[in-house]
Amino acid sequence: MNTQLLDLMKQRRTIYHLGKNVQFDQAELYRYIKEIVRYTPSAFNSQPVRAVVLFNEHHAALWDIVETTLEEKVAPDAFLRTKAKISSFRDAYASILFYTDMDVVKDYTDNPALATYQYQEYNWSEEAQGNAQFAVWTGLEENGLGVNIQHYDPLINAAVASRFEIPASWQLRAEMNFGSIEKPADAKEFMDDEDRFKLFQ
Hints:
The chain is an alpha+beta fold. Helices cover about 45% and strands about 20% of the residues. It has helices spanning about 5-10, 25-40, 55-70, 75-90, 100-110, 120-140, 155-165, and strands at about 15-20, 50-55, 95-100, 145-150, 170-185. α3 runs antiparallel to α4. The longest helix has 22 residues, at about 120-140. It holds the Pfam family Nitroreductase. This is Nitroreductase family protein. InterPro entries: Frm2/Hbn1, Nitroreductase, Nitroreductase-like.
């Protein structure tokens, strides 16, 4: 069997030590990310995933928002660790904000032809999110870039929406950082197969 996809999946890891030593043009990266999201599957081809790509000062502004927001929420003695973590995200080359357009979810929920499934569209939109995030992540790793993904929503939603003029119907689902790999990930551990898989022949 061909194993190209499997090999790429094995290469995909969470990289926390990211840098700005990226040789790709920003316009090229943006086109590449758009194409991956465009071709990501979604239920009924509903296409609920939205992506906002942040370079340069816009990337830094995202993590400034996160830092300011968490400083108001985290105890002072714990905030030093939080601040250091956020600083490492700011050290990355760029960020991608992944959103779900809730108007799309509502349209499908209200569609009489889909009445049998009306309570499932949000779940399906989450599947589309997972597909898109995994595909972008793997694609960036294929090109030698490191990636990590964070979830500071909903704490930062309002401030981020204001700063980047996000439509009201877009719900923030994840914040992805990418950049040069300054330190590789540790070895990955896996649970026992018998606890995870079943085979009937």
